[in-house]
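Predicting holo structure, N-oxalylglycine bound.
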Amino acid sequence: MEKLISIRSNIQTVPESYVLPPDRRPGKQDVPLCKTIPVIDLKGEHAHDKAELIQKIIKASQEFGFFQVINHGVPEELMRNALMVGAEFFDMPAEEKASFYSEDPKKSCRLYTSIDYVREKVHFWRDTFRHPCHPLEDHVKDWPEKPARYREVVGSYAVEVRKLGMWLLDLICEGIGLKPGYLGSGLSQVQLMALNHYPPCPDPSLTLGLPKHSDVNLITLLNQGEVNGLQVLKDERWLAVEPVTNVFVVNIGHMLQIISNGKLRSADHRVVTNTSVARTTVASFIFPSSDSLVEPARPLTNKGSPPRYKAFICKDFVSTYIADTHEGKPPLERYELDP
Ligand code: OGA
Ligand code: NI
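Done. Tokens:
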């Protein structure tokens, strides 16, 4: 438990084990605030007809691997409450959280700092509390009883986010030439929620909250709150994703890139820290069930457009993703097929 960064109170300097080698440091850079990742209005007065909506989502998913949605149907208050209850969880005394702390990646409801803490050369300035949420009734009993409203808030939030996620997956299906529902059932059976917590850091130029990565799953819906920190790599340059109230930041994961046979792309992103305030975010990840066969969608492949990736079982992909990421290797490479 002492490995958690949030437990080490009152850190005045960045400990040696968190200092990145100079070429991987974010530095004292001035990353431009990005106003270009499209904010797409799903249901509000600027909402578009369905065809235009789909076209915007697909274009952003191809160009950035990221888009943002507004008027998405998840109530404002629930978005705020999920962030608050997440912050309250991390603010509780250590003994209240101790039963969730685990170094076993197989533990389903788990508080930890880095997937790879023991093996990684440098640590990152983030703690996370992660658990499955779908179907709710199978999981809610394993969630914390404190803060008192945790189960109620996170439960309602997870259900609403799932509706939005499934809707977006259907729009994406339609946009790339798959029937709505293609990504339903097994391919989107699992929903994980991660409460990410990035405490203030004495020197954000030396360390990262999360290193450069692309998400492994299908899509991620991030409620990033009001504090800056997320950056997206576009054309070799980092762009800061400016927080916008009541927006979900949505990104394409590796497995959707593969299912779309490369029509959509997952994009690298990272998190920087700041000196003044703790940043808590709520990330919802939609995954295939662990035994699902994942492959480029058959309706998208034919002689003229052969599969660009090998088929795999979801859980095996997650294992090689973790191993390759540790080695600094691009995790999709071993699944690529020659054209
Ligand atoms: C993640 C992630 C971004 C954030 O959890 O995979 O990229 O801002 N989080 O917390
Ligand atoms: Ni991510």
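The CA atoms of residues 42 and 49 lie 9 Å apart.
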